[in-house]
Every structure is written in C-alpha cells, then in structure tokens.
Amino acid sequence: MSTNSKIATNVSASGHRKIGWSKANMSMLAKVAEGFADSKPFDGLTIGVSLHIEKKTAVLMTVLRTGGANVVATGNFGTTQDDVAAALNEMGIVVYG
To answer: Running along the chain, 97 residues long, what does each successive block of 10 average in pLDDT?
Structure first.
C-alpha cells in the first residue's frame, strides 16, 4: 500500500464517521432513503450537484444514490471537507473540488 493510499484511508474513515453521525440525526432523509431503496426512482439517471461537500450534504447524496442515481458532485475549494469527499468516493459518488 502506498503512502497516499494510507492517507486516503485514514482521511476517509473520518469522513465515514461524520456521515454516519449525520445520517443518525437526519430522520426525514432516512425515511426518504427507505422509500427510495425499494422504488429506485432515479435508476439509470446521473444527478449532478454543486454543494458544500460536508457531512449533511453527503447524506443527501447518499439518499440520491440509494434511489438509484449515479451522483456526481462539485464543491468549493474552500468549503469541501476532504475526509467527507474521500468517504463519498469510496461509496461510488464522484466528487470534484
């Protein structure tokens, strides 16, 4: 494993913890995700978002992904939380910025 891979893994672990905490405290989005898990309303669609990449917006992106969407996100250089972006990438969500 290269040094860069170790850093990315360490960074993404922090992002996963942040996203998990937010998911546990965003009950309305959890209910939406439950409905999306069965119906997959965005199956086959690519949804692009331009948001501050942080734990709360990450939950929104994971809900879209649960709904079947391929999610591509762009963020602001100054507000993107790198650990959250790394975690989202591991979940199959493409993040730029």
So the answer is: 50 95 96 96 97 96 98 91 94 90
